[in-house]
Write a structure and sequence with these properties.
By secondary structure, this protein is an alpha+beta fold. The protein has 17 helices and 11 strands. The protein is elongated and about 105 Å long. Keywords: Metal-binding, Zinc, Zinc-finger.
Length: 449
């Protein structure tokens, strides 16, 4: 009978015959699954030497990493086959959410994945109660072996930060798939015919058509960045075109709009004709509907969200969906803590906004009139402000929901509190309501029904 001897007389030399490739792969399996780009062979070699004082070759680590990736791929293939189980897992942890897995039946009677959509109940209820009627829409490519497009719908919180509402996966970004996505979103958010709501997107033809079909009364703002990109293809040598185009987009009133449009005409008639073909009133601030209190003329917040999930889009299908859900859950939790610890009347976004208006406001002269009306004089520029009606003839205050430089000048002159003239959407109380409810953590595949 063998006897175990726990006394060692040998001197450690960093070698271990039992430390095989399979063992290394098992040790790093979870780490490679979470961050495959970080745990490369050289990093694995360093960790093994530092933590276990064992020397391994670079070739062993390469083979172990490759084996771990094979195991992970097989694991995710098995999970993809259980996509309906994953959907059921969402409903188990986040009751009353809307999850749809759509498949098509092949000629041999097998189900083949077609489309996926999810909108969590806590998110849609919170958006309907506490968010501005503004939605950003965009699509981006998936980067794993399951090719397709990820479609996202985003809101904007009281601090003007992005808030994921719903997302889905389709094979291609076309009219049929956008209509399908839009129908679900319309039902979940109670958009009806779109009246009173605003959408910001790029000029993707399928999305534009879907909005026209499903939400005909929705105000659809086009992204100026994409318009400039299209114009640049034909007028790449026109260096002054970009600042002229953005000045036009940033116009808060029709007078400024016409003045900037005339400047483009004087600069180049070819550029002017192409600009007019894009219907500039659909992407200029001067023609935004009052009430959404969003001055954006581009879709950068949505592009920013797509960038934040860039690594997730490289993962296998289920892992990608779960990563996006986890990122949304963590985002809500972090902003909940931030909003509830903030002590000001309004959000930090308002403080930054007013800081930009500060210099102009202090240099202006204010002249009182009757009925709460004032004339604000700055150089040759004169504006009419009414604090009672919360309006300024420049229209910036009405569009942004935060006092413009002219209104701010009056507020300073009368020693009033600027935050009292900010609309409800940017108050700290609303910001806290934005993040009162979040997502419930979901259990792993072992617990799926």
């Amino acid at each position: 009978m063998a006897k175990f001897n726990d006394k060692h007389s040998c001197i450690p030399n960093g070698e271990c015959e039992m430390f095989k490739v399979n063992h290394i792969a098992r040790l790093f399996l979870d780490k490679i699954r979470d961050n495959p780009e970080y745990f490369m062979p050289m990093k694995m070699e360093e960790i093994i030497k530092e933590r276990w004082k064992i020397s391994v070759t670079r070739h062993q680590c390469q083979a172990a990493r490759k084996k771990a990736l094979i195991w992970i791929e097989k694991e995710y293939d098995e999970q993809f086959a259980r996509l309906r189980d994953y959907a059921a897992g969402i409903l188990e942890s986040n009751k009353d959410s809307h999850v749809e897995v759509e498949c098509v039946t092949t000629d041999d009677g097998k189900d083949m994945f077609n489309r996926f959509y999810v909108c969590f109940d806590n998110i849609r209820r919170t958006w309907k109660k506490t968010f501005r009627p503004l939605i950003g829409m965009d699509g981006c490519f998936l980067k794993n072996k399951v090719k397709g497009q990820l479609l996202v719908a985003l809101g904007r919180d009281a601090n003007n930060g992005i808030y994921p509402i719903a997302w889905g996966v389709v094979k291609v970004e076309n009219t049929d798939n956008w209509v399908w996505f839009m129908k679900h979103l319309k039902t979940d958010l109670g958009l009806n015919d779109g009246d009173g709501f605003i959408m910001v997107s790029d000029r993707q033809k399928g999305l534009i058509k879907a909005v026209q079909l499903e939400l005909p009364k929705m105000e659809h703002r086009m992204c100026v960045q994409h318009i400039y990109g299209n114009l640049k293809k034909h007028h790449g040598n026109k260096t002054q075109m970009k600042p002229l185009l953005w000045d036009l987009a940033w116009s808060y009133n029709e007078t400024d709009y016409k003045r900037h449009l005339e400047r483009i005409f004087c600069y180049d008639t070819g550029v002017y004709n192409d600009v007019m073909r894009t219907n500039p009133k659909s992407w200029c601030r001067a023609f935004h509907k009052i009430g959404s209190y969003c001055e954006d003329v581009d879709n950068n917040p949505t592009e920013s969200f797509n960038s934040s999930i860039n690594k997730a889009r490289e993962k296998p299908f289920i892992a990608m969906l779960e990563t996006i859900r986890r990122l949304a859950m963590v985002r809500i939790a972090k902003r909940s803590a931030k909003s509830h610890s903030h002590t000001g009347i309004c959000t930090p976004y308002v403080a930054l906004f007013l800081a930009k208006e500060h210099k102009y406001a202090y240099e202006s002269k204010v002249h009182s009139s009757t009925n709460g009306t004032y004339k604000v004089h700055h150089g040759l520029d004169k504006h009419r402000v009414c604090l009672k009606k919360i309006v300024c003839c420049c229209m910036k205050w009405q569009i942004c929901g935060i006092p413009c430089e002219h209104a701010y000048a009056v507020i300073i002159d009368k020693t009033l509190v600027a935050e009292n003239y900010v609309c409800q959407w940017f108050r700290t109380a609303m910001w806290r309501r934005n993040y009162t409810e979040g997502l419930v953590p979901q259990r792993g595949p072992r617990f799926w029904h």
